[in-house]
Amino acid sequence: GIRCVKNVTIHSASILSINAGEHWLGIAAADNSMSLFHRPQERFGSFSSPGSKMAGWQLYRTPQRTVAM
């Protein structure tokens, strides 16, 4: 299930690409899995601000081998 994660960690597989939009943050990894973050309210610029919270982000984790590269 999806739970609230304060310390977001990326798995050991190497990161292939990171696509950042205003409301979306997609991270594709070498194991054909992809972590997709969605922040519907605040702009993406607030993500890099000091002391910012990850509470506004929703994490969508796709199963392996289903991401079209």
SSE inventory with pairings:
Elements: E1 15-20, E2 24-29, E3 34-38, E4 58-62
Antiparallel strand pairs: 1-2, 2-3, 3-4
Describe this structure in words.
The chain has a four-stranded antiparallel beta sheet with strand order 1-2-3-4, with no helix packed on it. Strand 2 and strand 3 (34-38) form a beta hairpin. It has no helices and four strands. It is mainly beta and 69 residues long. Mean pLDDT is 57; it is low at 49-55.
Q: Write down how many β-strands occur, each being a DSSP E stretch of 2 or more residues.
A: 4
Please describe the biggest sheet, giving its number of strands, its sense, and whether it closes into a barrel.
Answer: 4 strands, antiparallel
In the sheet with the most strands, the strands line up as 1-2-3-4
Which secondary-structure class do the elements indicate? mainly beta
Strand content: 25-35%
Fraction in helix: under 10%
